[in-house]
Specification:
Layout lengths: L8 E6 L5 H13 L3 E6 L9 H8 L18 H7 L2 E7 L1 H9 L5 H8 L3 E6 L3 H5 L1 H12 L3 E2 L4 H7 L9 H16 L8 E6 L4 E4 L2 E3 L6 H12 L3 E6 L12 E4 L3 H11 L5 E4 L6 E3 L19 E3 L3 H8 L5 E8 L3 H11 L4 E6 L11 E2 L1 E5 L6 E2 L3 E2 H18 L1
Parallel strand pairs: 1-2, 1-3, 3-4, 4-5, 6-9, 6-11, 9-10, 11-14, 14-15
Antiparallel strand pairs: 7-8, 12-13, 15-17, 16-19, 17-18
Bound molecules: ligand PMT.
């Protein structure tokens, strides 16, 4: 277990709760396992355990304020956030969880959390009633949605030891969760070294220089997939329509495009060099035959007639180009006859797998942070249906299925 933590950079965030005394043990175990630990404490945490103890155990000065009082030295939460391989906040009080869930960055710990690029683990610790309050439940739910991992004692263990919910998980178990996270991350994935192209977002089809036809896609699903595949060692290029999201994984390359035709050209260029393509973009099926070179005026004119023509079907084109050994994954966004339409698209476009999401499912499809998918795989009679999950979790499920497909090649 220990060697998975060897040399890892870990931020240990400590907040002001009784369980703060346990974070000294947690720190000792992390250091013993070979991790380099930077402790960040909230002002309230210092009422429960002294920074002197924590800096002695970590071998580093504790960070608590934005500036060192006597020297004026600025502590950069951004640099800290980039430095870390993981951040663990233990104990996490209801107050800090609330701030994290709502972006209230009034101390060094929460600003560091908001800047962290790594996985964040949160070990709540509070009184039973506070833990059960709807606001705490909602805030913890939000943290999960943001992709944080909540570490709590298992329910069975609580019952057998008659210990109240809200108790901080034991330091040994927190260390085990972290070690397991790094073990899984480092296990050589079949995706390691594979070149993947992911299409993302909407396309924009110009009507004139100021207007366009588009749809509600935000790119959230596609970028979550890109990040997940990159975290498993794939070299990922996203061909992206206009979106305001960005990859978290810095190895992910982004090729920006605007129209369906631009997206088709980029994909046809990149696909021959790729092992896998995931077609997650919501490409406009139609484009404007003759966009006006000047702004269409309102005055004096009859309402314009805009003639549409078909856009290239990118997935279908790639399906026709596909070589043995390449994997082509499509999506199907449906509003009715979901299963039939998805299977039909998989066959027509020569896909190896299709991910169905339906706008009839609450929390699924465009713009949400969640999705509910059913995955059809060529040659397998039964689809795999998943419950509503965060898009990050959906991306991990899809990556698992792609890994299986790679192993079966
Ligand atoms: O971006 P988000 O806000 O997170 O939302 C995610 C999503 C709903 C956009 C995503 O999960 C999704 O369903 N993407 C596919 C949307 C879509 O256009 O589906 P479709 O059923 O119309 O298309 C079928 C497949 O053909 C898709 O893989 C699509 O990328 C592809 N296609 C479609 C038309 C076209 N001209 N070229 C294509 O390649």
């Amino acid at each position: 277990m220990d060697n998975h933590l060897q040399g890892k950079h870990i931020i240990l965030g400590i907040t002001g709760g009784i369980a703060a005394y346990k974070s000294a043990m947690l720190l000792r175990l992390l250091v013993k396992a070979g991790a380099e630990v930077q402790v960040v404490m909230t002002p309230a945490a210092k009422e429960f355990i002294t920074p002197v103890t924590m800096s002695a155990l970590s071998g580093k000065p504790v960070v608590s304020e934005f500036f060192t009082a006597n020297t004026g030295e600025w502590h950069s939460h951004v640099d800290l956030g980039l430095w870390a391989d993981a951040m663990v906040i233990a104990p996490a009080t209801a107050c800090t969880i609330g701030k994290m869930a709502n972006g209230i960055a009034d101390n060094m710990l929460v600003t560091t959390y908001l800047s962290a690029k790594s996985q964040v683990f949160v070990a709540p610790a509070m009184d039973l009633d506070m833990m059960a309050h709807p606001s705490t439940v909602a805030n913890i739910g939000r943290l999960r949605e943001y992709g944080n991992i909540i570490i709590e004692p298992a329910a069975g263990e609580l019952a057998s030891h008659l210990v109240g919910k809200g108790r901080m998980e034991e330091p040994e178990n927190i260390v085990a969760v972290l070690a397991d996270y790094f073990r899984r991350k480092e296990a050589l994935s079949p995706l390691s070294g594979k070149r993947v192209v992911v299409t993302a977002g909407p396309t924009r089809e110009k009507i004139d220089p100021v207007r366009f036809i588009s749809n509600y896609s935000t790119g959230k699903m596609a970028y979550a997939i890109a990040d997940e595949l990159a975290s498993r060692g794939a070299a990922v290029t996203v061909v992206s329509g206009p979106v305001s999201v960005a990859p978290s994984d810095r190895s992910v390359k982004v090729v920006d495009v605007e129209s369906g035709r631009d997206m088709a050209a980029a994909c046809e260029r990149i696909f021959p060099e790729s092992d896998i393509a995931v077609m997650c973009a919501a490409v406009a099926d139609y484009t404007v035959e003759a966009p006006s070179p000047t702004k269409i005026k309102r005055e004096g004119n009859q309402p314009p007639e805009i003639r549409l023509v078909k856009n290239p079907d990118i997935a279908r084109k790639l399906g026709a180009m596909k070589r043995p050994g390449q994997i082509l994954v499509g999506f199907a966004l449906e509003t009715d006859n979901e299963m039939e339409n998805a299977i039909d698209k998989m066959e027509r476009k020569n896909l190896d797998m299709i991910v169905l999401n339906s706008l009839r499912d609450k929390g699924a499809g465009f713009a949400t942070d969640t999705n509910k998918v059913t995955v059809f795989t060529k040659g397998e009679p039964e689809p795999q249906s998943f419950p509503l999950k965060t898009k990050k979790e959906v991306a991990a499920d899809l990556a698992d299925i792609i890994e299986h497909q790679l192993q079966a090649l």
